[in-house]
Amino acid sequence: MSSIFLRQGDSFVAMAETPYDAEEVLQELIEQHPQLLVGADGPHGPLVLVRREAGVSETEDGAGRWSLDHLYLDRAGVPTLVEVKRSTDTRARREVVAQMLDHASNAQVSFSADRMMDWLEETARERGSTGEEVLRDAFGIDDVDAYWAEVDKNIKAESFRLVFVADKIGRELRRIVEYLNRQMHSTEVLAIEVKQFVDADGEHQTIVPVVVGDTSEARAAKRPRRQRETLDRDTLLAKLAEYSEAARDAGAAIFDWAEGDDRLSTHFTGTGVAIKAESGALLKIWVYPPWIDRALEIHLPTLLEHPEGETLAESVRSDLDSMGIELLGNPKWPQTPIEKLADTDLRRRFPFVDGVGTREAQRRRRLVSGPMGAGPGVTGRPQNAGPRVVRLARETAELRHARC
Predict the structure, then answer these.
(1) Domain final position from 194, 221, 248
(2) For residue 371, what is the DSSP state?
(3) pLDDT surpassing 50 at residue 147
(4) Under 8 Å between Cβ of 24 and 31
(5) What's the number of domains the chain is made of?
């Protein structure tokens, strides 16, 4: 094994390369000091730990089949997937590479910006902080919503960073990493060799990380990422119209509802729009494949955080079921075809509409078209969860602030 020398005054202390006692030691080292992975002053800046042992599944609503060792985010909102193995682990080549590719190929259905936001909040809370404070301290971010929009865009584009970590990176794994990094244009693939050096008395420890795979050939092969322009109301509705006129009409009605309520805001990205209350997103509309056929996404976690949230979420599911609206995908972030809401009667009964907004905004909507474009003078509808959705979302934000 190799050695290094630590200078102390006029003398040098020999530091011998020493294996880690257990893989967990290396795991905790990476968790507590993520700068070992990319360097605090590297091109991607520091990393923020989102979650250890992040569940990875094959379907949006499936249970976690695998567990990713560490999930991080960088300043650009690129998810960084990390697998840690000691060199004594015989899986440190074929099986570990296959495992990482399983994680990467299923990351789009396993992770979402909202799920990662929740995970970061949990991790930060364990350390006496908040997700927003962590992002601001690490990256100097002022607009947290814009940052999460970038995370969302990277996930949808499958733009990730895959990092293998071991105390020794063998020749075979090195070649695989360098090959993958040259060939994968939207994803960066690296290996980090994290060697430990300890003196004879065990009083001094030095950690030496070495990056593998970041070659000039790989950097040259990376194509510049094509950034989609941020949408607005008109361009988003035009995209929906390309799919169907019914989808466009439904999208316009949802915008009319959101823009008429001063407790709601719309946040556009390059792939869609989020309609948010203070505590988080309520609805999202996606306008690019593969989501356009179920363009409307309902965000139940925003409701579930409230003490009454489970009851309200169940009411929302029941309302939608009675309307014949099928919820697809992850049960926390279910999606459904938006064009069904082109139907006037279904728009009147949609759970996110009635009883929201200022009285003046409600009066204007009733005079113009009734609830969510139901038609002039149409104001009534069956009782459902709608009147409480935005109110509970606001109360959730107040409870969150109180906890902080």
Answers:
(1) 221
(2) T
(3) yes
(4) no
(5) 2
